[in-house]
Design a protein that fits this description.
This protein is about 70% helix and about 0% strand. By secondary structure, it is mainly alpha-helical. It has one domain. The longest helix is centred in the last third of the chain and has 28 residues.
């Protein structure tokens, strides 16, 4: 009759949502409310992986840009 209400754990977000969140963090334009909501839902392992991949893509892009400019 009176079933105990289980505390609802925040639903985990998708990997794509993590990529979007980290991309906005790289740009530095996140709302405080969205940031705190994401921190409660995002898997920290995904954040680390996406952050490392994003940094690698950024550095490789800069290296490619410098090589292209210097080659001319």
């Amino acid at each position: 009759m009176n079933a105990p209400h289980a505390a609802s754990a925040p639903a985990k977000t998708s990997f794509l949502r993590t990529v979007k969140s980290v991309a906005w963090a790289f740009l530095g334009i996140r709302k405080k409310s969205e940031s705190t909501e994401d921190m409660a839902r995002i898997n920290p392992f995904h954040v680390i992986i996406v952050g490392i991949l994003g940094a690698m893509i950024f550095v490789l892009g800069l290296v490619a840009l410098v090589n292209w400019v210097v080659a001319k």
